[in-house]
Predict the structure.
Amino acid sequence: MSPTGTTLVTGATGTTGGRTAAQLIAAGHRVRAAGRRATPLPGADPVRFDWYDATTFGDALDGVDRAYLVPPIGDPDPAAVMVPFLREARAAGVRRAVLLSSSAIPAGGPAVGAVHQALPGLFEQWAVLRPSWFMQNFTGTHAHADSIRAEGLIRTAAGTGRVGFVDADDIAAVAVRALTDDRAPNADLVLTGPEALSHDDIAAIVTRVTGRPVVHQRLAYEDMRDRLAAVIPPEFAAMLAAMDRAIAEGAEDRTTDTVERLTGRPPNPFRVVAERELRAGPVPHG
């Protein structure tokens, strides 16, 4: 890709979007930082963008040749708004698209899985990033981080299941390579950290790093679903609780070499991230 191209970063104030935009800017790439409030970002061109408002698409896409795509949060059917946008993006001259998905959702699966399935048919240059669960879920503004700070608790239906939790900085580093390398990955990339950890392991590490006791409270699937449904749509709550249940059954107990293979360095372990972000105070995330 040309180093003088412009990259559209959706969710540019979010957990991976903000880091991706910052790393692109630091490497000398031009960035259009898209968000619902067009929040200024040092070194970027801010633009108002809303997945649910097609009138914002044109300005976001003007002069852009590649895009980092963060699906709308909490939408059980993001393809309904994302696929029309992607068609418009292709017509506007976007040649490469990198989609943020999840290790728990394959192509053709629920939610963003439908967008994943459509992407290779829309762009010749593409990648789908399928990170495991974010380490920042325990350090930022996620419900787990909130309950750690408020109650010293992590509540899940994941039991003793292990997850290859991944640092959002590493996700962003892979995104930058997928967006800017001369050759696009044209692949489905599962991203993990260097080790698979249970939520009991996470609680123990946070306890050691912060000096405050943290415990993993194991809930039944139904209890987790109902707790989530009190604050998010029931269909999305059921899907998230089901992901916990899949973790309990071993679905996320794996690690991959993708981060090191694409960036040339090993992924960060959770203890390093916890020391970086919890000792310094919580990092704001969108």
Observations:
- Confidence is low (pLDDT under 50) at residues 282-286.
- The first helix runs from residue 15 to 26.
- DSSP finds eleven helices and eleven strands in the chain.
